[in-house]
Amino acid sequence: MMKIAEIISLKNKRKITMLTAYDYPIAELVDKAGIDMILVGDSLANVVLGLDSTTKVGMTEMLHHAKAVTRAVKNSLVIGDMPYDSYQVNPDESVKNAARFIKEAGCQAVKLEWFERCLEVTGQIIKAGIPVMGHIGLTPQTADKLGGFKVQGKDAEAAQRLIRQAMELEEKGCFAIVLECVPDRIAELITKKLEIPTIGIGAGAHCDGQVLVIHDMLGLFARYTPKFVKKYADLSPVIAKAVENFKDEVIRGKFPAAEHSFSIKEEELRKIDGF
Ligand code: KIV
Questions:
Q1: Are 155 and 256 in a shared domain?
Q2: How far is the CA of 242 from the centre of ligand 1 (A)?
């Protein structure tokens, strides 16, 4: 099982890999492929539950899916993404909620997005012995306060703010920080300034690691594909074709065939009234 210290030690050695997963079969595939970290992201809201905002999932949904993921994982470090109301709406409940990801769901760490009381809450969770991954730049839970789903840190003042946030999160004891939708030169500067790894999503090639939402990179989420996504597979048409084939074969009586059916001996059949 990947340890926090091992993740930190990968900085300046090799790039770190992270993908999201929300269920047992995908988590098993991601883990077996040797991905360093699996994030049970609150992007669950969008790509699995069909909701229009990540603020619409809570602890119940997140724990339910985190448990399915940890059941499958043998090696990757599993991180539970703290839902909006578990720490931003209720900062006083944040330590208790973070602990539930560890104790009930079997995660090794939690991630939380930057907000006004982020440093205070992060400090409390880390003091309770729970490893925290930070998340700055575009923070979807508070995207409305950032002017929508836009690249962050595009002028000097905003970039300085991001640099300050990253350094403060490192000081608080975060073991890594996600940089989302940040200009590549700013991500590079933050990466150089920090001793902990940066994990980029839409933050260029200079980060210490990269993360993508698995439904985006597998072509399983059609509603919106951000510019930073690379589709490593296009599974939606593959699934659509299989479903159409099933429908067609059932209607034409071609499925199930003999090899998909179970038999009974003739002598047993003869004992049945009316056969
Ligand atoms: O919820 C999520 O999937 C995330 C990633 C985009 C980093 O926070």
A1: no
A2: 29
- The pLDDT tens digits for 91-146 are 999 999 999 999 999 999 999 999 999 999 999 999 999 999 999 999 999 998 99
Residue 132 has φ and ψ, to the nearest 5°, of -120, 135
Same domain, 202 and 253: no
Annotated catalytic, 28? Answer: no
Centroid of ligand 1 to alpha carbon of 213 (angstroms)? 7
| Residue having the nearest C-alpha atom to atom 6 of ligand 1 | 213
173/262 same-domain check: no
Q: Report the C-alpha gap between 76 and 6 in whole angstroms.
A: 11
Phi-psi region of 61 (alpha: psi -120 to 50; beta: other; left: phi over 0): alpha
Q: How far apart are CA 235 and CA 142, in angstroms?
A: 31
Residue 147 has pLDDT above 90, yes or no: no
Tokens of 29: 């595939």
CA distance 98 to 82: 7
CATH number at residue 219: 3.20.20.60
DSSP designation for 139 = -
Domain that holds residue 247: 238-270
Which residue has the CA at smallest separation from atom 8 of ligand 1? 41
Q: Do both 69 and 145 map to the same domain?
A: yes
- The answer to whether 236 touches 229, Cβ cutoff 8 Å, is no
pLDDT score for 224: 86
> Which pLDDT score, from 0 to 100, does residue 274 have?
86
User: CA 153 to CA 204: how far, in whole Å?
Assistant: 13
Tens digit of each residue's pLDDT (9 = 90 or more) over 198-250:
999 999 999 999 999 999 999 999 888 899 999 999 999 999 999 999 999 99
Per-residue pLDDT of 10-44, as tens digits, reads 999 999 999 999 999 999 999 999 999 999 999 99
Atom 2 of ligand 1: nearest residue by CA position: 41
